Amino acid sequence: MDISFIIALMGGLALFLYGMKMMSDGLELCAGDRLQSILERLTSNRLMGVVVGALITALIQSSSATTVMTVGFVNAGLMTLPQAVGVIMGANIGTTITGQLIALDIGAAAPAIALIGVVMVVFLKKERTNAVGMIIGGLGILFIGMGMMSDAMAPLRDNAAFLSLITAFNNPVIAVLTGAVFTAVIQSSSASIGILQTLANNGLITLQHSVFILFGMNIGTCITAVLSSLSSSRNAKRVALVHLLFNVGGALLFSGAVLLLPLTAWIAQFTPANPAAQIANFHTLFNVVTTLILLPLGSGLAALAVKLLPEEKEAVKPVIEITRIPEQRLGNVTISLHEISELLNRMYHLVQSSLNEAFCGLTTLEWDKEKILAQESEIDTIHRTIIDAIPVVATARMNVEDSRRLNVLFKINNDLERMGDHVVNLSEHASQILKEKQKITPQASRELAELQTILNQTAALLPTLEEYHHADTLQHIDQLEEQMDQCCEKSRQDQIQRLRNQQIDGSLCVVFSEVLTDLERIHDHYHNLAQQLYHEELTAS
């Protein structure tokens, strides 16, 4: 084995892994943030979760990517542990498609498949077409890489040192450990099983020896999800544990079957002249049967994961946090957009709470000023966190819809931060009134109550920043905006009249005018929020 062998083998593996990456990126562009709604709708039923997991994995040829995405979704609160169990089982079934395609020897058509994908990416302009082209092109590149690895391994059939090494796989324990370690290193069971099929095609390993390596590979593929869950929530760690339990359980079950029954001989007789197909068929049988056995026990698996990883006193997770994802992976954009939206909802409710407190100060001169300042500090911190995160998220590969939504969230972030500033101004105005030992007149108090009612009516039409609003809702808010402007203008005129009648002094008149300006600006920002959310819905439809 000289350096050229190593280069050819590693080059083929690189192309294989890059092909999977292209397919994952293509699916991300196709589905984008809709992955969340797809998973929410379809995974409430565990059987449908299996189907969804299998389809996603078949599209991207990587169970690791699907499982890591699932861990991320559970960590972000987009998916529950029971929902994740079905998706993980489906991912194990979907990953068998790679082996079946290798067994069908579509490698001969790989250059043509890659060409079609490249043409769609380079010469066609539609984003969705480009994304589909990435999936097709990635599939072609994946099998070109597999062909390179197959050609590189052909000389090994005459290599005495390698053949001597293969005999170590007669020991099932060594075989399982070898498969697990190798797959953990390259973090792709599809690639490792493809290499195993190549060895079998070259007559370097038998099916009887391959199956134990295969079991180890199924266990080794769990390492990616385990690593991604280490810094995640307790529930996300449980998802990785369920994946590990599933594959270890299947390996133990089938190890017993292989040792006690002529199972490999039964599988081999279906395709006696095609060793790669034998491994692919056994791999499919392993995952399908394990799923059929464990699917009814899915709730039990989730409960076992909870028992093995019980709730504990974890370090309190900061409320103000957006997950820093080190690399582009399937579902990352969905998770980032969701976390930004959650923080914006937090800002929205802080603004509402502070505004209500400020109104108490203006009307009764009794309010918690420190509470408003503390909430304003949190609003500013969240605002800065989102400002820092958006450029990072924006560099990720995303479709036009997700890019547009990110822009909307950026604008909402600025509106909410400005609203918080105006609320602090209201609190300071109340402090000034209290300091000068003055009091707003009963008529002015009624005017403030009317303005507060308008603000509350508008806020009620924006219950959360995640909900979309129809045209009639925006029209209603437009009317409230006009009503707010008219009421503020009338209040200013009435205040001047009270000043002329010497019911108030000049300083209170100035303060009240500034209060009206801040309230008017706050409602302007409410109006901006409504326009942004309505525009998002209109563009999406």
TrEMBL record:
Q: Which residues cross the membrane?
A: 6-24, 45-62, 68-89, 101-124, 130-149, 161-186, 206-227, 239-268, 288-309
- Work out whether the entry's keyword set contains Cytoplasm: no
Record's keyword terms, sorted: Cell membrane, Membrane, Transmembrane, Transmembrane helix
Q: Name one GO biological process term.
A: sodium-dependent phosphate transport
- InterPro entries, per database record: Na/Pi_transpt, NaPi_cotrn-rel/YqeW-like, PhoU-like_sf, PhoU_dom
Domain of life (superkingdom): Bacteria
Q: Which GO terms describe its cellular component?
A: plasma membrane
Provide the protein name.
Answer: Na/Pi cotransporter family protein
What is the scientific name of the source organism? Holdemania massiliensis
